[in-house]
Structure formats: structure tokens, C-alpha cells
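Duplicate of #3305? Posting structure anyway:
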């Protein structure tokens, strides 16, 4: 059995930082490209960042460029999303997804596995 688990979310004040983690269990993360998505209440899901299986390619949505950093440690089977200078509009559930064949796709069926999400709330 294979699954993804996100962790690291929480309640943070504006300007704060968080590091989200995405851990794959049951298989080697090195075989998968990883994407992070987020969904705020009433909004569509937004793809915010991607990293290739080897880590040599990364991409960011314009809305998070410069504040979010994606990384991975294949030895720990975990990918990370470091978030700085959090804003209230970053409040959302953050999901990671793993795809063996496709890099940084929007279509959910291009992903083999999805996590259950971790809530990030930015509020004073």
C-alpha cells in the first residue's frame, strides 16, 4: 500500500514562516515528480509549485514566486515546501501529489497519489 502524508501546517501570524512536508510511504519518492497545490474556501484548487524526481527542475506559480521554496530529500522519502512572509491570502488546505510519468501537470489524474492535505491559516 502506498500513500502520501502532508504535515507542518498550522496557524501563523502574517509575516511568519512554515515548512510543509510531504512524505511518501510504501514506495521510493525518487521515482516521482512532486507538485504542491492549495485550495482556499470557495476557490478552485491552485497548483503552486513543482519539483522533478531528481530535483533538478522546479517551478512556481506567480502568486508564490519569491516566498515559497520547494525541495526534496529522497533519502528521507520527503518533499518540502518552505513558506516565508505568509499572507492572509495564503490561507488554504495544502496538498501534495506524486506523479511517476508527468511533471507539473494541472490535471489531477496525471498524479498517482494525493495526500489528505494540511491546513495553513494565516491570521493575527
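Output from current build:
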Amino acid at each position: 500500500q502506498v500513500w502520501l502524508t502532508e504535515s507542518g501546517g498550522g496557524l501563523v501570524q502574517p509575516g511568519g514562516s512554515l515548512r510543509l512536508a510531504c512524505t511518501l510511504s510504501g514506495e521510493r519518492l525518487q521515482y516521482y515528480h512532486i507538485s504542491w497545490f492549495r485550495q482556499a474556501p470557495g476557490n478552485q484548487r491552485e497548483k503552486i509549485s513543482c519539483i522533478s524526481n531528481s530535483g533538478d527542475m522546479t517551478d512556481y506559480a506567480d502568486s508564490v514566486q519569491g516566498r515559497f521554496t520547494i525541495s526534496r530529500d529522497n533519502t528521507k522519502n520527503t518533499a518540502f515546501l518552505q513558506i516565508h512572509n505568509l499572507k492572509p491570502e495564503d490561507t488554504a488546505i495544502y496538498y501534495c501529489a506524486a506523479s511517476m510519468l508527468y511533471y507539473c501537470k494541472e490535471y489531477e489524474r496525471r498524479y498517482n497519489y494525493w495526500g489528505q492535505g494540511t491546513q495553513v491559516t494565516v491570521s493575527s
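Confirmed duplicate; merging threads. The mean pLDDT is 97. The chain is about 0% helix and 50% strand.
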